[in-house]
């Protein structure tokens, strides 16, 4: 069979990839600019025997996918900033109860209802710290459709591997633009399936007792084992506990399972970094504008490169520090007031080398914007 | 290139068809995007298409080589962005070109021809697409037809084919001065 080539929107690519990864349950409340994801899945999921539910709001949407995931489904919901805000409480629940799930946020301008139809990358920190309490989270993003596909499949894989919610943080430009994507054949992109317990019916099953490798085998809720699931701090049975030792162990487990695997989770793309004096760091659609600048300036012999981040959380600080070691200037290109900028400053030595090239007015940052800011940084004026 | 008009005229659909034809049947690289407001109909609509033989990074058009304006409002708003020496295509029924720009200005009576020959305005956009592919030579008519075959109901195919031909013909007529 020849490869399937499609010319579709980024949101549609996300759907193709989710189905490829085995998505069979989606609950959501449509919102611009993520609507196409719900729209397309409302027709695609029933065709394969999956479930699509349009819920009354985003709180119900994320709660529905959490429940469905517990019963053994691969689940996703999709939203934008306002809906993502509503989801934070249950996102924390999914982190605490360790429920594999994928939450797509196609970013638009905020805060509040903000700029419904315009691009932004303002939810980077919300993805990290929107839910209360100490926790770790995985957040992926992409700048082009082939990577939207790969990151979406990876999101499902990481959710299963680490029993955790994974956030796909796309933006309006990538969500709505159309470009070519090659849909991989079955088996071409590895899939991680649900790790189910080998404990038989009638034998005690401990839902929150990690194996030696830190993973927790699951038992489909409503199946052969009875167990408790709660947002409260809990013991290995899933029952509430305020025993300091138990709580300490739980917190360490929740954070270590992700932070200790940060290198495994880190995904980046690197362009011309070997000899770069000036390194742009970007992600999502602004990485496209950045790459445009880098390609043009390379042709003129300038030593400029791009480090594109695909994993935003856990922040790949080891890669950023290492790649930026020799650079004289580091310019973070993003469409917010410097959310990744702060992380880069924390990651690198000599943070005075780090500058921000940004827009946060709803307009997609273009190569001229970046060029002008580069000239200012280099003391050349506009 | 940039296609502009009013919501409902089908300029975005035309852009998608063109870009899809370029990618799927011409082995070219294309990116399509649209300016995007809350309104579903009316207002001025703009869609950007970039067709290239190498990777496209920045997906928006800043200075189009080809600018199509199907309403006066769209013309007034977008004519200044055309690349010097570019091609400006307007429909003579809807747009009165008032200001001189450094571009090849082509005024075509596409809407009137479509109404005379087919009587339905819904294929106006396909007629425009015919003119664009004839003027630019970027994509073969067969490739556009192949996309149309996958996107529209067979009973509407003939009408679209006819509209495409009208567009190609009217553009060829101006390309070969008599």
Q: Can you describe this structure?
A:
The complex is a heterodimer of chains A (382) and B (178). Chain A has 382 residues and is α/β, with parallel strands linked by helices. In chain A, 38% of the residues lie in helices and 20% in strands. In chain A, strands 2, 3, 4, 5, 6, 7, 8 and 13 form an eight-stranded mixed beta sheet that branches. A five-stranded mixed beta sheet of chain A has the order 10-12-11-14-15, sandwiched between helices. Chain B has 178 residues and is of the alpha/beta class. In chain B, helix 4 (124-136) packs across helix 6 and helix 5 packs antiparallel against helix 6. Chain B is globular, with a radius of gyration of 15 Å. In chain B, helix 2 links the parallel strand 4 (66-69) and strand 5 (86-91). Chains A and B meet through strand 6, helix 7, strand 9 and helix 10 of A and helix 1 and strand 2 of B.
Question: Layout of SSEs?
Answer:
The complex is a heterodimer of chains A (382) and B (178).
Chain A: E1 4-9, H1 10-21, E2 25-28, H2 35-47, E3 51-54, H3 58-70, E4 75-79, H4 81-97, E5 101-109, E6 115-119, H5 124-129, E7 138-140, H6 145-162, E8 165-171, H7 172-176, E9 178-183, H8 244-259, H9 262-265, E10 268-271, E11 278-282, H10 285-299, E12 304-309, E13 311-313, H11 317-323, E14 329-334, H12 339-347, E15 354-358, H13 367-377
Parallel strand pairs in A: 2-3, 2-4, 4-5, 5-8, 7-8, 11-12, 11-14, 14-15
Antiparallel strand pairs in A: 1-9, 5-6, 7-13, 10-12
Helix pairs in contact in A: 1-2, 1-6, 3-4, 10-13, 11-12
Chain B: E1 2-6, H1 11-25, E2 29-34, E3 44-52, E4 66-69, H2 72-78, E5 86-91, E6 103-108, H3 110-117, H4 124-136, H5 141-151, H6 154-175
Parallel strand pairs in B: 1-4, 4-5, 5-6
Antiparallel strand pairs in B: 1-3, 2-3
């Amino acid at each position: 069979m020849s490869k399937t080539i499609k010319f579709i929107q980024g949101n549609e690519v996300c759907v193709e990839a989710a189905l490829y990864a085995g998505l069979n349950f989606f609950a959501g409340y449509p919102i611009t600019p993520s609507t196409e994801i719900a729209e397309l899945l409302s027709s695609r999921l029933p065709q394969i025997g999956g479930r699509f539910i349009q819920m009354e709001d985003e709180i119900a949407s994320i709660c529905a996918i959490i429940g469905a995931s517990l019963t053994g489904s691969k689940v996703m919901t999709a939203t934008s900033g306002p809906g993502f805000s509503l989801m934070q409480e249950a996102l924390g629940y999914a982190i605490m109860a360790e429920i594999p799930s994928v939450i797509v946020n196609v970013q638009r301008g905020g805060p509040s209802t903000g700029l419904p139809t315009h691009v932004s990358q303002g939810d980077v920190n919300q993805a990290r710290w929107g839910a209360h309490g100490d926790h770790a989270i995985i957040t992926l993003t992409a700048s082009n459709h082939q990577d939207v596909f790969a990151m979406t499949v990876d999101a499902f894989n990481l959710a299963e591997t680490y029993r955790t919610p994974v956030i796909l943080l796309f933006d309006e430009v990538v969500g709505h633009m159309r470009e070519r994507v090659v849909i991989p054949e079955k088996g071409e992109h590895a899939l991680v399936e649900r790790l189910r317990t080998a404990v038989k019916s009638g034998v005690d099953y401990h839902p929150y007792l990690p194996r030696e490798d830190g993973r927790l085998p699951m038992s489909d809720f409503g199946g052969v084992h009875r167990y408790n699931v709660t947002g409260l701090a809990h013991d290995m049975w899933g029952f509430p506990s305020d025993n300091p030792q138990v709580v300490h162990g739980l917190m360490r487990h929740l954070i270590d399972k992700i932070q200790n695997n940060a290198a495994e989770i880190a995904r980046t793309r690197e362009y011309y970094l070997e000899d770069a004096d000036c390194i742009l760091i970007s992600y999502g659609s602004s990485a496209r504008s950045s790459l445009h600048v880098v390609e043009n300036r390379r042709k003129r012999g300038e030593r400029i490169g791009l480090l594109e981040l695909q994993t935003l959380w856990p922040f790949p600080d080891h890669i950023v520090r290492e790649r930026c070691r020799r650079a004289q200037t580091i310019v973070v290109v993003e469409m917010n007031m410097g959310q990744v900028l702060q992380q880069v400053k924390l990651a690198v030595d000599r943070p005075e080398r780090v500058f921000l090239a940004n827009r946060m007015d709803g307009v997609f940052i273009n190569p001229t914007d970046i060029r002008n800011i580069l000239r200012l940084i280099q003391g050349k004026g506009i | 290139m940039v296609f502009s008009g009013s919501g409902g005229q089908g300029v975005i659909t035309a852009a998608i068809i063109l870009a899809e034809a370029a990618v799927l049947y011409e082995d070219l690289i294309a990116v399509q995007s649209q300016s995007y407001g809350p309104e579903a109909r009316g207002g001025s609509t703009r869609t950007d298409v970039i067709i290239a033989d190498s990777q496209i990074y920045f997906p928006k058009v800043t200075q189009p080589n080809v600018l199509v304006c199907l309403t006066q409002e769209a013309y007034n708003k977008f004519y200044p962005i055309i690349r010097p020496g570019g091609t400006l295509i307007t429909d003579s029924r809807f747009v009165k070109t008032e200001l001189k720009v450094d571009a090849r200005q082509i005024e075509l009576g596409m809407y009137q021809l479509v109404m005379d020959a087919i009587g339905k305005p819904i294929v106006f956009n396909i007629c425009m697409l015919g003119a664009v592919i004839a003027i630019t030579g970027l994509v073969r008519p067969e490739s556009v037809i192949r996309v149309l075959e996958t996107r529209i109901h067979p009973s509407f195919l003939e009408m679209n084919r006819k509209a495409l031909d009208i567009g190609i013909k009217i553009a060829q007529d101006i390309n070969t001065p008599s």
